[in-house]
Amino acid sequence: MRVLVVEDEPQLAESVAEWLRQQSHAVDVALDGGQALERVGVNEYDVVVLDRDLPVVHGDQVCHQIVGSESGARVLMLTAAADVTQRVSGLALGADDYLTKPFAFPELAARVLALGRRSRQAVPPVLRRGDLTLDPSRREVFRGGRYVPLARKEFGVLAELMMADGAPVSAEHLLEKVWDEHADPFTNAVRVTLHKLRRKLGDPPLVETVTGVGYRLR
After folding, report:
1. CA 32: distance to chain centroid?
2. What pTM did the predictor assign?
3. Contact 205, 198 (CB under 8 A)
């Protein structure tokens, strides 16, 4: 998934981003509300992890604009305020979930994953196609009962292909969802990652190239 972390404390922002990257998400970081709105206007995010008390543009206004844009991004609001009225007001703005600081990284990651499933229609908790099974929460892939160890990008690419359920997925879409905003659009990273993925999945081949369109699972 593509995730935007909006947090004005740089160390916390990078810690959250790195934890989510370990779950094979593509993660961008914004340190204030203005940066957040710029990134949301350019990139297609599945989930926005949004600190409420932000400089430049307050988190409430950022949330309001994300919800009003109908971008489809789900908002997980973070705040140091544990008061019930604060949580209620945050949800009233359109936030999809609320987490108070301090929080445990595993819980945040689980909430992001749950929101990401809601941002796409009918995405089950465990993805299956033929003899291939992918569990996003456990970051496990099995083919024919055999465990397949995958690197982060390989896992992310396979997840996108499985969610497409046989429909072609373009290289541009894979760059958008699996890599972050620093990815070079002219890079061969997608092709290289798919080459490694095909080799690890074994025979018979599962991933095929659709000339001029992208890639899909058989």
Report:
1. 20
2. 0.72
3. yes
HEC string for 70-90:
CCCCEEEEEECCCCHHHHHHH
Looking at every residue in the chain, the average pLDDT score rounds to: 88
In 3D, which of 215, 193, 198, 216 has the Cα closest to residue 148? 198
- Kindly report the number of other CB atoms within 10 A of residue 138's CB atom: 8
CA dist., res. 93 & res. 132, Å (int): 40
Give the helix, strand, coil percentages of the chain, each rounded to 5: 40, 20, 35
Q: Give the chain's radius of gyration (CA, Å).
A: 18
Cα 155 to chain centroid, rounded: 12
Overall size of the chain counted in residues: 218
pLDDT classification of 176: cutoffs 50, 70, 90: confident
